[in-house]
């Protein structure tokens, strides 16, 4: 079920860096979150509308990130999101932060997101409309 990679441009701002002007490691998770959100939006799956329509939300269940090279203040990056696998209640997305220009990989990881009922945070099945959009 692996899909095509989605890429979202990101500029590194002062607030993203540590005292040395290097991107603080936890901010790569924020970059990845933005890319996943925009990837879903590009598939017609806006998360706020999904919650209204289905009563469910995605939550991060597991992360694994490797940091290969630092990004610096004012760098231009592409944060990617690509479906690795999808099950009944969760999916795993492969993600990268790429230096621009050139495409050198700075950080890469896998993020597993689960579908839960928003009111109770109990695991639930991913609605068919979402799985259909992922397969297009």
Describe the structure.
With 136 residues, this protein is an alpha+beta fold. It has one domain (6-135): Hotdog Thioesterase (Thiol Ester Dehydrase, Chain A), CATH 3.10.129. It is built from three helices and five strands. It has helices at 27-42, 47-54, 128-135, and strands at 6-11, 56-67, 76-86, 90-100, 105-117. A five-stranded antiparallel β-sheet has the order 1-3-4-5-2. Strand 4 and strand 5 (105-117) form a beta hairpin. It is elongated and about 45 Å long. The model has no long low-confidence stretch (mean pLDDT 95).
Topology:
Layout lengths: L5 E6 L15 H16 L4 H8 L1 E12 L8 E11 L3 E11 L4 E13 L10 H8 L1
Antiparallel strand pairs: 1-3, 2-5, 3-4, 4-5
Overview features:
hydrolase; 5-stranded antiparallel β-sheet; Thiol Ester Dehydrase, Chain A; 5 strands; about 140 residues; 3 helices
């Amino acid at each position: 079920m692996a899909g095509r990679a989605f890429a979202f441009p990101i500029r590194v701002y002062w607030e993203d860096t540590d005292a040395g002007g290097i991107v603080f490691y936890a901010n790569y998770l924020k970059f990845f979150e933005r890319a996943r959100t925009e990837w879903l939006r590009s598939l017609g799956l806006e998360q706020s509308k999904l919650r209204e329509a289905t009563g469910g939300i995605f939550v991060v269940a597991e992360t694994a990130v490797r940091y290969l090279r630092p990004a610096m203040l004012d760098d231009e990056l592409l944060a990617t999101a690509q479906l690795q696998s999808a099950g009944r209640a969760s999916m795993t997305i492969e993600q990268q932060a790429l230096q621009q220009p050139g495409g050198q990989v700075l950080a890469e990881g896998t993020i597993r997101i689960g579908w839960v009922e928003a009111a109770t945070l109990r695991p639930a099945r991913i609605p068919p409309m979402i799985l259909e959009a992922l397969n297009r």
